[in-house]
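During the second half of the funding period, the structural biology subgroup turned its attention to how the target accommodates small molecules. The most pressing case was iron/sulfur cluster, which had performed well in the primary screen but for which no bound structure existed. We therefore specified the complex as follows and requested a full 3D prediction, including the ligand pose.
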Amino acid sequence: MDVQRKLEILADAAKYDASCASSGTEKRDSSDGKGLGSTAPGMGICHSYAPDGRCISLLKVLLTNACNYDCLYCVNRASSNVPRARFTVDEVVKLTIDFYRRNYIEGLFLSSGIIRSADYTMEQVVSVARKLREQHRFRGYIHLKTIPEADDTLITEAGKYADRLSINIEVPEEDSLAKLAPEKDVRAIRRTMGRLRLKLDEARDNDKAATKAKPPRFAPAGQSTQMIIGADAATDKTILDTSANLYGSYRLKRVYYSAFSPIPDASRSLPLAAPPLIREHRLYQADWLMRFYGFDAGEIVDERAGMLSLDIDPKLAWALRHRDRFPLDVATASREELLRVPGFGTRAVDRIIATRRLTNIRVEDLARLHIPGKKALPFIVLGNHRPQRNLLDGEALAARFKPKAVQMGFGF
Ligand code: SF4
């Protein structure tokens, strides 16, 4: 099989993995003439969006889509009837270098099905990164998928070459993992995430303590994970509780949410249809609230429903459930309170706090501060604005933010 055909198969097989944004790594470049590539923004093949909104491009492939495991939700599972292919280590290295030189990509995202053993597969994945860094002086971004059962020395070596490592938690609940991926061991997954955390902490502490000697490098962009949404019956509340636990326990940089895609010849244990993509989007918004807006997982989702609203964003939904906390006087509210106002982002809050020291903010100032007022005005008091009490209390407020009903088409 030629490399072009392998690339078709193995790039297509990798598309289900969402955990490949490249933010947060150290800055490197090759302007000194020693080495190849940089971690600066570029143009490329597989587009991902980093948390800061930057569009990044990675060569995103599997080393092989053959796999000993039979995870029911995975198109590459052992019992799946798909064409199989396998790259050699040198083929992936050459592709990465060639694509980089043509400015198609700014890095590599490499994962693999598990062949022979976890150690054998991990060694192959690490060999690609080692060759890129040591033989080709490649300074672009490298994200390696880590196999939880692999030996600790291989994982340490992976962290030496990769910017980011990730291990997929796969599904939010342990019971579901046992049913859908019986060969996977949730304890091994969590144990390896814990080991990664210790190595990341150690590297960070060494970095702080270092005087002249350079500390050993370990995945400067940290670790991330991915959860498949909609393959089991887990509610959004369960998903966010699991994410909060993962952020707290393993200092993950990101949890990625990937809406389950129905696959050919799927098991009857799986749903027939994909969840609405908007659910994935709402989970990302809720995740953002936990990481940057001071919300706890438990308060984002309405306890009774267990699910995020698909119609309106989670912060607005929270504010509508807690109208007694509004309207908030922008002149005196704390930063934490302002962060809970619908429509106020973190930068908007910073601008408000800087401006209110100098002047009493009025409605017309919002546009000047680049703050959209439409969502926020029913919830705030400004120098020349106070929302009517009956507006904040009324049902009409919730209806105002819901998308307009659209007549369904007939499909012809
Ligand atoms: S181990 Fe990974 S590649 Fe193999 S079947 Fe499971 S999810 Fe798919």
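Two results from this model are relevant to the next phase. The first strand starts at residue 46 and ends at 49. Residues 38-44 have pLDDT under 50 and may be disordered.
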